[in-house]
């Protein structure tokens, strides 16, 4: 459907507050679908459920059509029909709930049809669905309101049986009620809660003994189906609640739950009405004489025998009907507003306005009421014609439900299978099939006359009216929409900036493979790409414009662009650093894109997510956030597909250019969201989508270029988390958990960065002041495992600080200045290293017990415990390699003695490196924790240096000096031993005996072999580019160690890494 575009997705979050105008994920849900947030999200799942029950209004919905049950066979049809119809309607409810979870917008079925249908038919199908949806909303609401007027009139006849209700009196009463119901929306929340109590009271009050009778329809064996009309009518409007999607927090979960629960809850409640009613019915033929066709007051009077008693029970049903009227009118007004917002009805500019005071579409509510009032005038001329207009509501709603469900089935449920709320492929297909068949049968059922023979007064003209409505809508399509299609507006530099949010069709908002193979040769020149990320406020005029790409309006083509009307609330917003017109354009058409994009997203969940998380299950927050937000947040969606393409690019080089282009598109989404947030002085909610996208891109940019460290993304994420921490966020525990999750993710990212870059994090002690970190300090392990930091965030922090200290110290040692300041700083670093050593030695993971399972069979909790202990040992190893005096203190050596370095290596660091290697051997190679292990293998390799004895070293030197005088190698005429002796001469080891080989040398060789094997495995199972750099670094370290004439004490592995620029994000 056409959409009011906003400049970007704003902040998003995993869970939302219950009240407030816009809630992170919900705002992203809406904006990524192409609409802007206009209504207040003040409805909970229970509010929506109660509104659904209020719309059903079981005592009224069932009772107002009781005459049909009387024609259809009486009590048997009533009771069995209630059971059967509830089962069938639940299939419809589940089918609609899945679609609502996939596309959570008030546009409802017509928007779903547009998204699912093929490019050739999506416009016309969405238009047909939209008009049937709108007509159904209007006429079913009219049916309820007219039913209330008729019920009220029948109630009066309890005391005045002879009073005659002329048509004009009923119409006058109806119009008066219309005017009153306009104000009911102010109190709808309380009314929805109250209706449940009213329904309960009316159902229990109906119990009284009575008897049953025979079938009166004349349809023979088909009479039973005529008798199930009451329950079918009762739940006919269950899908109207989807129009409230933009007034509910956490809509992708709460709305489908409310829809799916409405029928089961209504079924149970209805039994307390249907069973007593079946047991107390008077003779069926007598019920047909009920005034105005309203059987309930008449039944109450006949059964109870007293007008006052009948009035008491009827009053309860009248109250329920009022609740139903208000609820269904509110829902219909939201549908009208959504349709007007998409410029699909005349006068859309007026009807789509939202009252700023009440944040409700008052004009749409007015139009809904006016239409009902005009249709009610038909009753003055012909009651049969009016009844046809009233009954067409069920048919129209059924058609609007059936079209998107059938379209979804035609695509193999490709969309709803990945929705946040879904019934799965197999069971969902069965449910959809039952729903479509039941809808088709309903169309026949509600088009039939209730009894035969058929007379002009009993004829059901419903289908005639339905066709008439559709003819009018077709004429409007020909007059208005058909011509709009040829004038679809695309964004250009003179208009508003292109929104990088994913519009009505996600596949149309991305750059397909075949379009991306034709990109320029630009590459990432330095770690500041794009400069827009480093300074997002300058992004708008820094990113290059690609003239071959244009930004489309991904919405039904009969909707003109609202940007040309200047309707955006962001029109006057200023962005520091320049104008907004130079954003890269997205392609207007997609050539084979949707299939490729779907494959990319599937690959992310199947391959990337397990290779990007230390454990992967339903408990993995990375998977949970991605699954919940991939269909609602443009930044998340673009980040996921960028990661997926980047992950595959190492194995398929042809994907590198498309992956780079996708990275740029994802960066644009992030830039725009960041720009929006910078305009806010206080962040009152956690922008989960933006944060998650920053972590996605920042940690995966090295998959395209191994030397990229994601510094600009890290800076943006860190600034954002700092803002959230420094301002009071009015959030519950769930929001604090989200914030804690991202802070732990930041800890891990900074740990990776500190290993290869002189990046300075805030001092660890500062973070320990927070309550959360105090909890971490108080316990050995975290309460819940994290997909990156595992079970101990504290260990990750200590490793970070240890590496930073080592890097700082090596800088001073390798580039001595001789100043007192440098010497004093070096001494301070040595003292801090000693403190860090003490803190690391305090950590003991050998006796920890699991706190929470990971849910991943390949990665039990103990694997993460091994990793935590490995990081503890790796931290100590780096401190001992960098500060030999720490080992001297442990070995009780005199600081400053010349022998201490060799002893440190032989007696302390090598055993520690071997211990670390053996610990890593305990973790199977298929463990999901492998993604957080690459640093550990590098650290272990830095301690695997074998020191020859001094005499052996001198002998080697002499032998090396004499190599030039050695005779050339000869082959012919040589014996086996002579052949080997010649090899020894060439290697310069003739003077070195077998006694030089020690057990430690064998252990070092075995350990080195294990590390290389594991790195090979990681290169096959993770993204290979960073692992390839890690392998080169390990081999360079060993080569430097093995080539040293003084063993492993004359250099440091950090110097080797810096000299050869072997850096990446190793994790």
What can you tell me about this protein's structure?
- The chain starts with 23 loop residues before the first helix and ends in a 7-residue tail after the last helix.
- The protein is 60% helix and 0% strand.
- With 1067 residues, the chain is mainly α.
- Among the domains are: 35-460, Amino acid/polyamine transporter I; 853-865 and 889-1060, no CATH class.
- It has 43 helices and no strands.
Q: Which terms would index this structure?
A:
disordered N terminus; 43 helices; 1067 residues; 60% helix; mainly alpha; Amino acid/polyamine transporter I
Low-confidence residue ranges: 1-24, 184-215, 485-593, 763-779, 896-901, 949-966, 989-994
Mean pLDDT, to the nearest integer, reads 73
CATH architecture verdict of the domain at 35-460: Up-down Bundle
Q: What is the tally of beta strands?
A: 0
So how many helices?
Answer: 43
Q: What structural category do the secondary elements indicate?
A: mainly alpha
Q: What fold name goes in the CATH topology slot of the domain at 35-460?
A: Amino acid/polyamine transporter I
Amount of helix: 55-70%
- CATH superfamily caption of the domain at 35-460: Amino acid/polyamine transporter I
How far from one another are the termini? 42 Å
Q: What is the beta-strand fraction?
A: under 5%
What composes the largest sheet? none
CATH class of the domain at 35-460: Mainly Alpha
Radius of gyration: 37 Å
Query: Given the C-alpha coordinates, what overall shape results?
Result: elongated
Short description:
The chain is mainly α and 1067 residues long.
């Amino acid at each position: 459907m056409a959409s009011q575009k906003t400049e970007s997705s704003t902040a998003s979050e995993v869970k939302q507050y219950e009240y407030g105008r816009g809630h992170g994920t919900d705002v992203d849900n809406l904006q990524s679908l192409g609409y802007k947030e206009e209504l207040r999200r003040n409805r909970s799942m229970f509010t929506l459920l109660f509104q659904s029950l209020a719309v059903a209004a079981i005592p009224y919905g069932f009772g107002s059509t009781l005459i049909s049950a009387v024609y259809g066979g009486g009590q048997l049809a009533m009771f069995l029909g209630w059971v059967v119809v509830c089962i069938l309607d639940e299939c419809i409810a589940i089918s609609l709930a899945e679609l609502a979870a996939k596309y959570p917008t008030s546009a409802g079925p017509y928007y779903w049809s547009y998204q699912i249908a093929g490019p050739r038919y999506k416009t016309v199908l969405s238009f047909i669905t939209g008009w049937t949806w709108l007509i159904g909303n209007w006429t079913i609401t009219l049916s309820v309101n007219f039913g209330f007027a008729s019920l009220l009139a029948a109630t009066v006849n309890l005391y005045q049986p002879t009073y005659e209700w002329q048509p004009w009196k009923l119409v006058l009463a109806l119009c008066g009620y219309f005017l009153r119901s306009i104000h009911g929306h102010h109190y709808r929340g309380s009314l929805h809660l109250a209706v449940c109590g009213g329904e309960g009271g009316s159902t229990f009050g109906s119990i009284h003994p009575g008897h049953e009778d025979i079938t009166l329809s004349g349809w023979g064996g088909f009479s039973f189906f005529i008798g199930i009309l009451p329950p079918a009518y009762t739940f006919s409007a269950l899908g109207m609640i989807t129009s409230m999607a933009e007034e509910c927090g956490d809509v992708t979960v709460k709305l489908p739950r409310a829809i799916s629960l409405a029928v089961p809850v209504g079924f149970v409640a209805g039994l307390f009405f249907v069973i007593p009613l079946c047991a107390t019915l008077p003779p069926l033929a007598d019920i047909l004489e009920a005034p105005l066709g309203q059987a309930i007051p008449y039944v109450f009077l006949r059964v109870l025998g007293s007008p006052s008693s009948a009035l008491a029970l009827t009053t309860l049903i009248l109250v329920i009907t009022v609740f139903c009227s208000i609820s269904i009118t509110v829902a219909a007004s939201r549908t009208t507003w959504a349709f007007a917002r998409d410029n699909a009805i005349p006068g859309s500019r007026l009807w789509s306005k939202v009252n700023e005071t009440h944040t409700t579409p008052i004009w749409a509510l007015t139009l809904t009421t006016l239409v009902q009032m005009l249709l009610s005038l038909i009753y003055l001329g012909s009651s049969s014609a009016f009844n046809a207009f009233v009954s067409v509501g069920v048919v129209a709603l059924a058609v609007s439900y059936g079209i998107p469900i059938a379209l979804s089935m035609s695509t193999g449920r490709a969309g709803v299978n990945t929705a946040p709320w879904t019934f799965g492929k197999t069971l969902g297909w069965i449910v959809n099939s039952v729903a479509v068949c039941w809808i088709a049968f309903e169309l026949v059922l509600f088009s039939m006359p209730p009894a035969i023979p058929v007379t002009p007064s009993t004829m059901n003209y419903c289908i005639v009216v339905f066709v008439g409505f559709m003819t009018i809508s077709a004429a409007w399509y020909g007059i208005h929409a058909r011509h709009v299609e040829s004038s679809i507006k695309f964004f250009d530099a003179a208009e508003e900036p292109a929104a990088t949010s994913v519009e009505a069709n996600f596949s149309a908002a991305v750059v397909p493979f075949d379009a991306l193979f034709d990109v320029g040769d630009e590459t990432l020149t330095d770690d500041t790409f794009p400069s827009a990320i480093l300074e997002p406020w300058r992004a708008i005029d820094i990113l290059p414009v690609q003239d071959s790409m244009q930004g489309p309006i991904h919405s039904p083509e009969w909707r003109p662009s609202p940007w040309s009307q200047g309707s955006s609330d962001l029109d006057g917003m200023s962005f520091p650093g320049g104008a907004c017109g130079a954003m890269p354009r997205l392609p207007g058409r997609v050539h084979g894109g949707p299939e490729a994009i779907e494959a990319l997203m599937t690959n992310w969940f199947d391959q990337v997510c397990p290779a990007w998380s230390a454990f992967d299950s339903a408990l993995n927050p990375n998977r949970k956030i991605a699954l919940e937000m991939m269909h609602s947040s443009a930044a998340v969606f673009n980040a996921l597909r960028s990661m997926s393409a980047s992950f595959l690019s190492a194995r398929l080089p042809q994907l590198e250019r498309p992956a780079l282009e996708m990275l740029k598109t994802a960066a644009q989404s992030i830039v725009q969201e960041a720009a929006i947030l910078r305009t806010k002085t206080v962040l009152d909610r956690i922008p989960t989508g933006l944060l998650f996208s920053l972590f996605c891109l920042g940690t995966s940019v090295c998959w395209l270029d191994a030397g990229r460290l994601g510094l600009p993304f890290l800076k943006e994420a860190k600034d954002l988390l700092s803002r959230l921490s420094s301002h009071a966020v009015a959030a519950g525990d769930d929001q604090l958990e989200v914030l804690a999750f991202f802070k732990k993710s930041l800890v891990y990212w900074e740990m990776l960065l500190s290993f290869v870059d002189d990046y300075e994090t805030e001092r660890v002690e500062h973070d320990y002041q927070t309550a959360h970190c105090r909890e971490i300090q108080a316990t050995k392990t975290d309460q819940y495992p994290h997909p990156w930091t595992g079970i101990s965030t504290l260990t990750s922090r200590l490793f970070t600080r240890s590496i930073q200290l080592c890097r700082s110290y090596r800088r001073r040692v390798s580039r001595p200045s001789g100043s007192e300041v440098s010497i004093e700083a070096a001494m301070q670093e040595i003292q801090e290293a000693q403190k860090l050593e003490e803190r690391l030695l305090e950590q003991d993971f050998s006796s920890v017990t699991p706190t929470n399972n990971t849910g991943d069979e390949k990665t039990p909790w103990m694997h993460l415990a091994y990793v935590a202990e490995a990081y503890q040992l790796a931290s100590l190893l780096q401190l001992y390699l960098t500060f030999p005096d720490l080992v001297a203190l442990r070995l009780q050596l005199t600081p400053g003695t010349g022998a201490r370095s060799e002893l440190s290596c032989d007696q302390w660091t090598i055993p520690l490196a071997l211990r670390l290697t053996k610990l890593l051997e305990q973790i199977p190679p298929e463990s999901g924790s492998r993604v957080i292990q690459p640093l550990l293998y590098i650290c272990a390799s830095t301690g695997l240096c074998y020191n020859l004895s001094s005499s052996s070293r001198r002998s080697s030197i002499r032998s090396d000096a004499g190599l030039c005088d050695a005779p050339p190698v000869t082959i012919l005429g040589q014996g086996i031993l002579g052949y080997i002796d010649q090899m020894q001469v060439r290697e310069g080891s003739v003077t070195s005996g077998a006694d030089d080989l020690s057990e430690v040398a064998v252990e070092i060789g075995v350990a080195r072999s294990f590390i290389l094997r594991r790195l090979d495995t990681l290169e096959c199972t993770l993204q290979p580019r960073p692992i390839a750099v890690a392998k080169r670094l390990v081999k360079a370290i060993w080569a430097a160690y093995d080539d040293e004439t003084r063993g492993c004490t004359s250099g440091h592995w950090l110097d080797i890494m810096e000299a050869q620029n072997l850096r990446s994000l190793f994790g």
